[in-house]
Amino acid sequence: MHKLFRNILSFSIISISLFLGTTSFADENWTTVTSTGESYVVPETINANLPYQDGTYITNDATTFSNVGGIPFTSSNSNSNLESIIGSDDRAKVTNTKIFPYSATVFISATFPNNKTYIGSGNMLSPDSVLTAGHVIYSKEDGGWATNVVVVPGLDGNTAPFGSAIGTKLLSVSGWVNSSNSDYDIAMVRVNKPIGYSTGWYGLNTNAQINQNVNTAGYPGEKASTMWKANGPITTLNTNSISYSIDTTPGQSGSPIYDSNYKVLATHAYGMGDYGNSGTRINSTVFSWITNQNKDYVSIFRITNPNNGVHFYSSSPSEISNLLRVGWKSEGVGWFAPSSGNSIYRVYNPNSGLHFFTQSSGERDNLVKHGWKNEGISFYSSNSGTAIYRVYNPNSGQHFFTASESEKNNLVRFGWKNEGISWYGL
């Protein structure tokens, strides 16, 4: 069964608890809950804002879809009477989804344990994370966490200019997952490749103002998988929500509500008919929750040079982006690493052009004695978790690192030497 995420008509009464000074994560509703069974509290950061980031806007991964996630481009619910059009429909079709910020606005399909598939919207928030509404990826009535999430930035009909990515880890908070409380209807999706390097990503801002003109872009279900935009004033500010006079319809849940500097002020979630629409506000608590999720662990991206087959691994957005611009090919997320822990050192051979990664300072120092260049700490490892295997090609001198045991075994069959577990990811 296919249907759309509905703009929830019955608007919950907003919590009137006030923020006095800074907020506190003593509120257990902000405990992070993930699709992989984790539950933890992240520290609060100082109320601030983050700028948007440009992408490469390279469309080498462009794909033509006949459908997305098994969802037809039209739906029996596309004429739902829950549409929240305020007076006349002022939305306009985005004619070029390959330019920012539309490149960083995403179509989401989510299939749940009961085999129902829904569509929603969201926005890129980092190279490999998407911000959306909690009900887009977690639904108690449909069995809990979505079991398959497809993210398509800049989708335009049946054309995905930047390709698509698959959700590998879904995150929300206990206030939504355990209580379905609209004050906590927010979520993030970590995806399997750094698609955000191509699309760019939105910033964040906690400083919303009454009557401020704001914008949105997303995927109304009745518009055949095309992106539509609108703008209008903020009409109400509450602790955990923002209301605005902007037209939306089912399918736009999770859309960014953003300012003139492409910073997200809220994530669209609810429709109230002629009374307007509303979303979960990026207040200081939400800002802290989001930014700490991205800091808690990092993606180690794997890219390859198609000319010589050499692989490279990095958590640096600028480093990966620069190499992609000159022809390296993305192979997605190699593994996730902690933001701190055991140091993984990187050294470079100026003669062969090869990089080598090791947790052993002794191994690093020995290579430096033989002319390799010490490039410092590249990323970090855990004491346990996902094993990262190391294999060696005696013909080319290349080392290869992978979290996949089957990939390691396949290379060993072709003559590579198994050098065991090099370190652990998350």
Number of domains as seen in the coordinates: 2
- Give start-end ranges of low-pLDDT stretches: 5-24, 68-83
Summed over residues and divided by their number, the pLDDT gives a mean of: 85
- Counted beta strands: 30
Q: CATH superfamily of the largest domain, please?
A: Trypsin-like serine proteases
CATH-derived topology of the largest domain: Thrombin, subunit H
The helix fraction, in percent, is 10-25%
Distance between the termini: 35 Å
Can you tell me about this structure?
The strands form 7 sheets. The protein has a 6-stranded antiparallel barrel. The chain is built from 7 helices and 30 strands. A hairpin with a 6-residue loop joins strand 22 and strand 23. It has helices at 134-137, 174-177, 196-199, 284-296, 317-325, 361-369, 405-413, and strands spanning 32-34, 39-40, 49-50, 63-64, 92-93, 105-111, 117-126, 129-132, 138-139, 144-145, 148-153, 159-160, 165-173, 187-191, 203-205, 213-218, 228-237, 241-244, 256-258, 263-271, 277-281, 297-304, 311-314, 329-338, 342-348, 355-358, 373-381, 386-392, 399-402, 417-425. The protein has 2 domains: 28-293, Thrombin, subunit H, CATH 2.40.10.10; 299-425, no CATH class. The model is unreliable at 5-24 and 68-83 (pLDDT under 50). 47% of the residues are buried. With 426 residues, it is mainly β.
